[in-house]
Amino acid sequence: MKERKERGLPTLNQARASRHRQLVLGRTKVPATSPQFWLWTVVVFAAFSGIYWWVSESKLASGKSATLAKQRALGQTALAELIPLRDRVEGWTAELAAEPWPGDMAPRVKLTDVQREPGVYLRLRSEHARSRETLRRAAARSLHDGFTACFFEQSRPLVADAPACKEQVDCEPGLICSEWDRCLKPVQPYNLRLTFRAMRVLSNEWSDEVNQVSSDFGLRVYDLDLDRTIRGDVPIAAEVLERARYVTIVLDEDPPGGLPAALEAAPGERQESEEERVQRAAHPARVGVWDLKQRERVVFLRAQASGAFVPVGARVVTDPQNVAAQQRQANSCSLALAVKEHLGRGSAGADVPDAGAPASDAGDGAPDAGAAAKDSTTNGDAGAN
């Protein structure tokens, strides 16, 4: 029998059969890929990933080195004079917090000198003065209060006309973002919390955080933080501290019965801090004043911060947050009056306000986050600004 001969070219016949099979079965036969192809694909991809990782890490490491170099330069130039001052203040604070209390010291300075000469102010809870770490964290929360309003002779800043701010970078050179979230010139006394905030970028913790950054975006955050400190906090701190003569430190001891319970915060409001809880209860406090030029202690006193707030006017505040703010101001003003008396100005003097009625005199110009401005206008709350 004669073998049947295939018509046409074999390759065309094979292609025709493949198309017919695809139409009938809905699939086509894919030729097998060489194993060497996949092997080289994996090798090329791994090599590309390794090179990309190496380039990214090198760039990130270079950026970290540049940021830390800028930090070291800041510590050796702009902040070089502030570091010894910070160390002295920390040492004086530890001296004031030492137990047992050695007793009051006869003042070696005139009251008017401390009140009127340029100075700096720091107020902490005594518990936070036990170590440098807790002291530095607490110093960042130190604010002007009823003590500064009743003790120092200061002019009230025009808050309403000042530009608003959220951070120091929002203010022009020479102005600070104050407790009122307004750009203002530094007032007497200068708040040391701004200096401690500037010094934060020199801490080991800040350096460790930079070294642990894992992305360019994260490093950019720290770089901007350093730039804001250089442009904002450092120039003001250096200028004010250069003129400062005295440093006043107030340490609040816990009340004999312990910390009072925290007030319940309204929705959207912050919780009452430990410092605020101490200051609204009657408690002993320690006050020390040091002469920055002579580097010697001139005031060393332990007194009671216990005042009575007497509301004036027909409208009486009953909101617990505002009542607590008023009591903080009364207690702080009472402490200030005790220091005044210790320094030689009798409580019967014409320019010394009555400790029992700080509503009209004691509260002028002292910010306290616990009180609302609308209540201060009718009830004399010293802390609402």
How does this structure look, described?
The structure is a single chain. With 385 residues, the protein is α/β, with parallel strands linked by helices. The protein has one domain. Helix content is 45%, strand content 10%. It contains twelve helices and seven strands. It has a five-stranded mixed sheet, with helices on both faces. It has a two-stranded antiparallel sheet with strand order 2-3. Helix 2 runs parallel beside helix 9 (216-243) and helix 7 (193-199) crosses helix 9 (216-243). The termini are far apart. Residues 346-385 have low confidence and may be disordered.
End-to-end span in angstroms? 115 Å
Which spans of ≥5 residues are poorly predicted at pLDDT below 50?
A: 346-385
The overall average pLDDT, rounded, is 80
Strand content: 5-15%
List the helices and strands and how they pair.
Blueprint: H1 10-25, H2 35-76, H3 82-97, H4 111-116, E1 119-125, H5 132-139, H6 146-151, E2 176-177, E3 183-184, E4 190-191, H7 193-199, H8 204-211, H9 216-243, E5 246-252, H10 274-279, E6 283-291, E7 296-305, H11 320-342, H12 373-379
Parallel strand pairs: 1-4, 1-5
Antiparallel strand pairs: 2-3, 5-6, 6-7
Helix pairs in contact: 2-9, 7-9
Short description:
It contains 12 helices and 7 strands. It has 385 residues and is an alpha/beta fold. It has one domain (63-260, 274-379).
Which features characterize this protein?
single chain, 385 residues, alpha/beta, five-stranded mixed beta sheet
